[in-house]
Design brief:
The chain is α+β, with helices and mostly antiparallel strands. It is globular.
Amino acid sequence: MHKRVRMSVAAAGLVGALALTGCGSNSDDASKDKPSATSTEAGQEGGGSQGSLDGAWSGVTDGKAVALSVSGKTAAVVADGHVCTGEVADHGKPMLTLKCADGNTDRTMGSIESNDGTKLVVSWEAGAKDTLTKTDAGKLPKGLPTGLPTGIPTP
């Protein structure tokens, strides 16, 4: 239980940090003011999608926190203890093409099924299907535990 609370808070913190920093993009100042064609196209193509992918997304799949951050062509996901980064690519429809730091392959190729700007559904090639809700930058997602577990000795 304690590990799940820490992982949920860590995932939420990572999504917030990634959203605020633009996933560590190395783009120059001149390109910051230009809208990303990939994020705009990705939000309007395939699966009846209407909203932009850019931003922080979070949800729970199989009882475990999932966090996704997209900034332009850069994407990062934290799920089930794995951190995966990569890009939004156009393979005839928007896809997330990621590589996990620990070699995990559960969420390396994801297809955007739907995106209405507030709810995003991603189907992963390995079988997982995440339904995520857009989160406000700097705010933790709803539904996280609010209190600390009892009976934990303090240092």
